[in-house]
């Protein structure tokens, strides 16, 4: 039986806010006492995680004095040194404080947009100091409840201005950080923009330094938009922009549930893991999720272990898929090979226009996809 124990090679990471989630929700107060960043680092080491991520204020409270900041950072570094846990990613909280009630980079208030830049520069400094290589931008408040309030063209312009400014800031300081933009269609704003990974990929091409900007697709967020997460991830990978990924789970047509990875849509999780392993994805595998509100901290550890275990079980299932003779024979039968016409020439066009097709015969060519998919279901259910 394969050993499903996580190792550093898996690059499994958790944000401070994930296992540190105290169980507050819009309809209920916290159910778990807060635990410190140092305690979280030790918990992550205990369950076998490789990395820990943070928003600036997960680590350093927004009103901390410089002396308090330095002490907090020193204690955090000590915990990292003691455990070997690393910091792959950092990000800015631009959504909790009331100052960001109408957005941060896309607020209608230029003072707020300027403050958001200042806060992000300081958070980038902190992330770089702790060794982060990826900097995530999730615009939780970048959106509207009424389109009367904000012209999306202004929002896109202001978001572009901010990212261009911050790209230059990173380059000016030689930080070597890459930016990863994370989309979400709604919540907490009525509509958030850019709303999906696809929208972000298009937006990146309008920036001054697109080469240093990629995406951080999140499973729950693409599912909230009713999309196939693996397809979004594949398009990001195809564009060379899959710099980071937020793994979790999510029932469709629900608020952002941030469930344990593999806990709800096991088939989508399988095809996602299969894709990442097939292409040799080598960036962090971040579980942006949290335990049920019903959990105590022992169950929070079970949540974290479950995220990593499910990924490793599905990784083993993907290996079995690749080695399954019946599945591979079917795939060989199905895949008819490279396109007959790919590169244009006048001759190729003329030959193709002259070619006779039997359209009815083409239409009669059935595919054994039911048989193939049942083999996958058998594999996932463990009867194959
Ligand atoms: C929510 O899905 C967002 C925030 O938690 C954070 O900014 C980002 C980093 O993973 N994900
Ligand atoms: Mn989420
Ligand atoms: Mn996320």
Describe this structure in words.
This protein is of the alpha/beta class and about 375 residues long. It has two domains: about 325 residues, TIM Barrel (Alpha-Beta Barrel), CATH 3.20.20; about 55 residues, no CATH class. About 45% of the residues lie in helices and about 10% in strands. The protein contains 15 helices and ten strands. α2 runs parallel beside α4, α9 runs parallel beside α10 and α10 crosses α11. It is globular and about 75 Å long. The mean pLDDT is about 95. Bound molecules: 2,5-dideoxy-2,5-imino-D-glucitol and manganese (II) ion (MN) (2 copies). 2,5-dideoxy-2,5-imino-D-glucitol binds next to β4.
Pick out its properties:
384 residues; alpha/beta; TIM Barrel; 2 domains; 8-stranded parallel sheet; two-stranded antiparallel sheet; 10 strands; 47% helix; binds 2,5-dideoxy-2,5-imino-D-glucitol; binds manganese (II) ion
């Amino acid at each position: 039986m394969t050993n499903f124990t996580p190792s550093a090679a898996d690059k499994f990471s958790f944000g401070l806010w994930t296992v540190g989630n105290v169980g507050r929700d819009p309809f209920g107060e916290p159910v778990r006492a807060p635990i410190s960043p140092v305690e979280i680092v030790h918990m992550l080491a205990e369950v076998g995680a490789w990395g820990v991520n943070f928003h600036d204020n997960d680590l350093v409270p927004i009103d901390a004095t410089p002396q308090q900041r330095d002490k907090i950072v020193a204690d955090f570094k000590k915990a990292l040194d003691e455990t070997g846990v690393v910091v792959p990613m950092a990000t800015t909280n631009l959504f909790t404080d009331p100052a960001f009630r109408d957005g941060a980079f896309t607020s209608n208030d230029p003072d707020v947009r300027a403050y958001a830049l200042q806060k992000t520069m300081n958070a980038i400094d902190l992330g770089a100091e702790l060794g982060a290589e990826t900097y995530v931008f999730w615009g939780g408040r970048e959106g509207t409840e009424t389109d009367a309030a904000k012209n999306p063209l202004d929002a896109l312009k202001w978001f572009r201005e901010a990212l261009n400014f911050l790209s230059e800031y990173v380059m000016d300081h030689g930080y070597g950080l890459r930016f990863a933009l994370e989309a979400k269609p709604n919540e907490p704003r009525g509509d958030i923009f850019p709303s999906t990974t696809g929208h972000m990929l298009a937006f990146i091409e309008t920036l001054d330094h697109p080469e240093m900007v990629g995406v951080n697709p999140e499973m729950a967020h693409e599912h909230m938009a009713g999309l196939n997460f693996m397809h979004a991830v594949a398009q990001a990978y195809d564009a060379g922009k899959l710099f980071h990924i937020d793994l979790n789970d999510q029932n469709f047509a629900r608020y952002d549930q941030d469930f344990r990875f593999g806990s709800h849509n096991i088939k989508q999780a399988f095809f996602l893991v299969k894709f990442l392993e097939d292409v040799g994805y080598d960036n962090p595998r971040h579980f942006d999720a949290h335990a049920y509100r019903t959990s105590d901290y022992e169950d929070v550890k079970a949540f974290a272990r479950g995220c990593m275990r499910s990924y490793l079980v599905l990784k083993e299932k993907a290996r079995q898929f690749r080695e399954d003779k019946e599945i591979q024979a079917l795939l060989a039968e199905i895949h008819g090979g490279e396109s007959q016409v790919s590169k244009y020439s006048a001759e190729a066009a003329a030959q193709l226009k002259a070619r006779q097709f039997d359209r009815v015969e083409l239409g009669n060519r059935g595919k054994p996809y039911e048989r193939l998919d049942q083999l996958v279901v058998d594999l996932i259910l463990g009867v194959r």
